[in-house]
Write a structure and sequence with these properties.
Number of helices: 2
Organism: Sagittula salina
Keywords: Membrane, Transmembrane, Transmembrane helix
Order of helices and strands: HH
Helix content: over 70%
Protein name: Twin transmembrane helix small protein
Largest sheet: none
Pfam families: HIG_1_N
Shape: elongated
Length: 67
Amino acid sequence: MADDPLFILIALVMFGVVGILFFGISSFAKGGAFSRKWSNRAMQWRIMAQFVAVVLILLFTYLRSKH
């Protein structure tokens, strides 16, 4: 399964979600003008990345259930 390109894409997107999450949390922690500029935007990016990850996971599950 680890050599499946769709599985690798899902893993990369999930790592991206974690990276965006850490960036958003760090922008909240930093505070000030940086937080006002980036924290909300980062959380919006996280939601979009999570949506992509969930769609890819559902696609992966659907394609594998057909075998």
